[in-house]
Specification:
It holds the Pfam family TPR_AP5Z1. This protein is mostly helical. The chain has 42 helices and no strands.
Length: 815
């Protein structure tokens, strides 16, 4: 019954598998154990092993509820793996493969001694069990004991053993544990060198040939254009059937880059911390390509000679041969795609070789430069270009080459033209992420071409959001921060513009005259008045302005596309990146630079793409960050007094921006003081006071009507506090402040707000009136020294008497 429960067929299988219990697995094990050693029962045993595999896969890794298989059954399964399957026996191969899968893909553990015994068996190497040995060796912490066996498989003459040995020895797990010594590494390099450079050009015979008495005619492999090959064999040689040595040549090339990377990690001259960082990155295989990269490890000449030997020149020769082969026109589309993939791999390998052995850089650089010149105009090679850019980035300094022209062509032409190529843009983002610190330090890529890079985010906001949280800060400096600020706020417009331009490619529309009004976004794109706006929004290079005068008009023509999924996701990304932008800006210690951001923030708060959720979130961030900026550097209030006064003296600026307005009024009341800036004179304070006083009277008039914004009482409350604080710093203003606040109190019966809010405003105004009637006390309480925020006054006994006397006077007045 247990067996049938675990293997219920049809749609119910997954549900039944989830309900498998310890008893079910124990029953399966009891059924399997007597059958597994009987060859004639292989088919029946395979069926039960399949059920056991499915049941074990449903157990979460590391769970205490995982049932352990009987050791007797585990040893019998290992006995099955220690011998080659009997192909003539029905079910023998399935039984063999299922045993492999159970040990490789489930939580079943094999003891170190049993695993080493299996590795020593004759069939271990030829059974393609590298994954099993890596998985179980890592669990039982005996990988180092398996290395000698893997080395013997590698050096054997058996094709399957060679594959298993190579796959095992190039594993990241061995690099992390430093289990590969120089001798083993040299053996791997020697075999790779041999397989890459000593492969015949004759195809394998047809394995299904019925020519029993004759000899098949020898056929040579061909080039991708169909001509017979007369040079060394590579992955780009085409044959109907491949010999084992040709397959090992292909397998070796596919492993070569990983092996070179592992050699660099294992024997490179990086610091211990860098090695550990590289190992940690390797452990997270899914994220490895996007980890920021430390400086590439170098190998001294002695290590290169001993560990890599002839592999370096043979690999360079092999890659040069591939580059030459890619000049041929492929007859079949699949072969053309193979050319692109081979070029990518070849350039990556050459890049790593030049990092390991600088003596190779000069000749390799010339070949890569020639390749770049040849393929830069061919769109099908766009993915290769990013790896060429990476190569130039790493090695241009070594040959005194200026790569700026290459960077400009790539980021202003290749990136915009290949936004729809997800493989390409992923490679671009990976390049930036892996080298972000070095790019920011040594090149102008981020500061010059950030609009082009951010177009990738605009087109794939969900895919690359996390990556751009790392890219944004290094792209910011005094010259680019403001333009990046505008770019972030305009990112949904960039997305919408790109979508319009993509649709415009498929629709034939004649160029619209400047006088005609476009009916939709596509017509607007072809309109001579609007096209410059689209081109500015999708620009590829920075330094072309920080805003545009007709931005609201562009918002209007793009309105029909703002509800699209891509745009809405982009709006969510904007909020995340905007917070990061402010965090980075606040790290600056230049008050003058930061003060320049205040008018920019105020201006953009009224020019946002019409997505209500985005507008609300951006306004909230602006309101909070304006206060944070001014708190960090209070002198900003004085430096930007003209712009701040212009904003706060107009009640129309409150519309939709009440919190921003209120917070800016609070900042004026709190920090417009000579204690924070010597440039803040009585005249400056008077100008601020006059601006707010006019607004206070105007708001009182609005509150006496039924129709007013619900947030106005809060703004009035903030203004009341600001007026009192400003007056406490300039005694000439105290009579005017008392008069204004008295007006607020006397308007109690006319203010059309709820009683609680009304009482709060009136009581607040009354308290400030009482306080201002004692100027000395008001100055202490409303205009304290900045040190109050450090709690110094709470510890300084000399400051307490004056404060207590002032509080006593206020209490007497209130009585």
């Amino acid at each position: 019954m247990a067996a049938s429960t675990a293997s219920s067929p049809g749609k119910g299988s997954p549900q039944k598998a989830k309900e498998t219990t310890r008893e079910d697995i124990s029953a399966l094990c009891s059924s399997i154990e007597p059958l597994i050693t009987i060859p004639e029962k292989s088919a029946e045993c395979s069926s039960l092993l399949r059920q056991l595999f499915q049941a074990l896969q449903t157990c979460p890794s590391g769970s205490s509820s995982i049932p352990s298989l009987p050791q007797s059954l585990i040893r019998k399964m290992l006995d099955v793996l220690s011998e080659s399957p009997q192909l003539k026996v029905v079910g023998s191969m399935n039984k063999y493969l299922l045993c492999q899968m159970i040990f490789s893909e489930t939580a079943v553990e094999v003891t170190a001694s049993d695993l080493v015994s299996l590795a020593a068996s004759k069939a271990a190497g030829s059974a393609n069990m590298a994954n099993l040995f890596l998985t179980q060796g890592h669990r039982s912490k005996c990988l180092y004991k398996l290395v000698p066996h893997a080395k013997s498989w590698l050096l054997s003459q058996d094709f399957e053993s060679q594959k298993t040995g190579l796959t095992f020895l190039i594993s990241d797990s061995l690099v992390q544990g430093k289990f590969v010594d120089e001798d083993t590494a040299a053996a791997v390099s020697e075999r790779l060198s041999h397989w890459l450079s000593n492969t015949g050009l004759v195809q394998a015979s047809n394995p299904r040939s019925l020519n029993l008495f004759g000899k098949d005619e020898e056929r040579m492999v061909t080039e991708v254009d169909g001509t017979p090959s007369t040079n060394m064999f590579t992955v780009l040689n085409i044959g109907q059937y491949y010999t084992e040595e040709q397959l090992m040549n292909i397998h070796s090339f596919s492993c070569l880059y990983k092996w070179l990377c592992n050699v660099a990690k294992r024997f490179g001259s990086s610091t211990e911390a860098e090695v550990e960082g590289a190992a940690a990155a390797a452990a997270a295989a899914a994220a490895e390509d996007r980890q920021p990269q430390t400086q590439r490890p170098k190998l001294d000449k002695a290590t290169v000679s001993k560990v890599l030997g002839s592999l370096v020149p043979k690999s360079v020769e092999y890659c040069f041969r591939l580059i030459d082969q890619c000049e041929r026109k492929a007859k079949v589309q699949m072969d053309a795609e193979l050319q692109v993939s081979s070029l990518v791999e070849a350039v990556k390998i050459l890049d790593m070789i030049c990092s390991l052995d600088e003596d190779q850089t000069a000749r390799v650089f010339q070949e890569v430069k020639r390749l770049n010149t040849r393929i830069s105009q061919e769109s099908r090679y766009s993915t290769v270009l990013i790896y060429i850019v990476t190569f130039f980035f790493h090695h241009s300094a070594a040959v005194v080459h200026d790569p700026r022209d290459t960077y400009e062509f790539f980021f202003t032409k290749s990136v915009p033209e290949n936004l729809n190529n997800q493989c390409f843009v992923t490679a671009v983002v990976n390049f930036v992420i892996k080298n972000v610190d070095e790019i920011a330090e040594k090149t102008d890529i981020l500061t010059d071409y950030f609009p082009s890079i951010f177009k990738i985010l605009a087109w794939y906001p969900r895919l690359f959001m996390e990556d751009f949280t790392s890219i944004l800060p290094p792209a910011m400096n005094y010259e680019t921060s403001v333009e990046i600020f505008h770019l972030l706020l305009d990112l949904p417009c960039v997305t919408a513009s790109l979508e319009v331009m993509e649709k415009a490619k498929k629709v034939e529309v004649s160029t619209q005259s400047a006088d005609s009004e476009p009916a939709n976004a596509i017509e607007a794109f072809h309109n001579v008045r609007y096209k410059p706006l689209f081109l500015y929004m999708t620009r590829s290079k920075g330094g072309q302005g920080d805003t545009i005068d007709r931005l609201s008009r562009l918002h209007a023509v793009l309105s029909e596309g703002l509800s699209g999924t891509r745009v809405m996701v982009c709006c969510q990304v904007v909020i995340i990146l905007l917070r990061i932008w402010f965090i980075h800006v606040l790290e600056s210690e230049d008050a003058v630079y930061l003060a320049q951001l205040i008018p920019v923030i105020i201006e953009r708060s009224s020019i946002l793409v019409a997505v209500p959720e985005l507008v609300a979130d951006v306004h909230k961030i602006f309101a909070n960050q304006l206060v944070a900026l001014i708190k960090a550097y209070p002198s900003m209030v004085t430096i930007q007094q003209a712009d701040i006064r212009e904003f706060i003296q107009t009640t129309a600026n409150m519309a939709g921006r009440l919190q921003i307005y209120s917070n800016l009024v609070y900042a004026v009341g709190e920090f417009a003081s000579s204690k924070y800036s010597t440039d803040c004179t009585s005249e400056t304070i008077g100008h601020f006071y006059e601006s707010l006083e006019v607004v206070a009277y105007e708001l009182l008039g609005q509150l006496s009507t039924q129709e007013h914004d619900a947030g106005i009482p809060k703004v009035l409350s903030t203004i009341v506090a600001a007026l009192a604080k400003l007056a406490s710093r300039c005694q000439d203003l105290i009579p005017r402040a008392i008069l204004c606040l008295t007006k607020v109190v006397k308007q109690e019966n006319l203010i059309m707000v709820n009683p609680t809010t009304k009482n709060f405003i009136v009581q607040k105004a009354s308290s400030y009136i009482a306080l201002l009637k004692n100027p000395d006390t008001a100055s202490v309480i409303l205009n304290p020294e900045p040190e109050i925020y450090t709690a110094k006054w709470h510890r300084n006994s000399t400051s307490m008497p004056s404060i207590l006397r002032g509080i006593e006077r206020i209490l007497r007045l209130n009585d």
